[in-house]
Design goal:
The chain has 251 residues and is mostly beta strands. The chain is 0% helix and 59% strand. It has strands at residues 2-6, 11-16, 21-27, 32-38, 41-49, 53-58, 63-71, 76-81, 87-92, 96-102, 109-116, 123-129, 136-141, 145-152, 155-163, 173-178, 184-189, 195-200, 205-211, 217-222, 228-233, 238-242. A four-stranded antiparallel beta sheet has the order 4-5-6-7, with no helix packed on it. It has a four-stranded antiparallel beta sheet with strand order 8-9-10-11, with no helix packed on it. It starts with a strand and ends in a 9-residue tail after the last strand.
């Protein structure tokens, strides 16, 4: 398997995960802020930089793909492909989310729509997930708010917002479906006070607080089979939680 990372110094690197070696270097003339594989074309990736420029690259050669360039306003912060891989969602440091069409074969990019979140603030995390009847997009903002949208093609429709303590930190949140007696879609987020918060999307409020970290929790993610939740804090401590226990108590 392969992994990819972007560096603020203007370099992106493709890694062979099993051997832990770099197998490709991509050079950019501007500091990079985010990078994503093209899900339906694993020989291509898209980068963004602090000038708001998006570029597609061929991973076999490390070269920029001709015609694969687009610009959004301000400095980009996050990239996330939609469920059908033909739409790339791009956020910036001014509370805006752009939909950008991506040609699966050529990786040509075209900016479509822009959505501004209420209250502004830099968007520090995006998460996209297939949902019923429409896909969902979750955005975390430094204004201490989480925003849940439904996706209608290339348009975002706000359905819920929740309050969480981020204090300006780049803290990640995710969409977490839970198949229990309380079936539904939940939001899981780290926070600056060291807790992991679980929100009921229908109620728009926290229904559980997982405690065990002693400093800000920057990242939460699900295992590949979605049976466990993993959280990591600023000290490097990682905690593994059973997903079935996330909603056992009401706050």
């Amino acid at each position: 398997s392969s992994g990819i990372n972007a560096e603020y110094g203007g370099t992106a690197r493709l890694w062979h995960c099993e051997r832990a070696v770099c197998i490709r270097v991509i050079a950019s003339s501007h500091p990079l802020t985010a990078i994503r594989f093209q899900p339906m074309n694993n020989n291509a990736c898209v980068t963004s930089d602090e000038e708001g420029v998006l570029r597609g690259y061929n991973l076999s050669t490390g070269k920029h793909l001709s015609g694969s360039r687009e610009k959004v306003s301000n400095s980009t912060t996050c990239l996330e492909f939609g469920a059908n891989s033909g739409i790339l969602w791009v956020s910036n440091n001014k509370g805006q989310i752009f939909s950008v069409s991506v040609n699966i074969l050529s990786c040509q990019l075209k900016k479509l729509k822009c959505t501004s979140i209420p209250g502004g603030g830099s968007i520090v995390s995006l998460a996209v997930r297939a949902g019923h009847p429409r896909p969902l997009l979750l955005a975390s903002s430094t204004s201490d708010l989480l925003f849940m949208f439904t996706i209608d093609k290339d348009v975002l429709l706000l359905v819920r917002k929740c309050t969480v303590k981020l204090n300006g930190l780049p803290i990640r949140s995710i969409i977490c479906p839970i198949a229990t007696a309380k079936r539904g879609t939940f939001i899981v987020s780290g926070s600056s006070d060291g807790s992991v918060l679980v929100f009921d999307m229908e109620k728009g409020k926290a229904v559980n607080k997982l405690q065990g970290h002693s400093c800000p929790v920057y990242c939460v993610c699900l295992s590949f089979d979605e049976s466990i939740l993993i959280s990591a804090d600023s000290s490097g401590t990682v905690i593994v939680w059973r997903k079935r226990d996330l909603c056992q108590e009401e706050l």
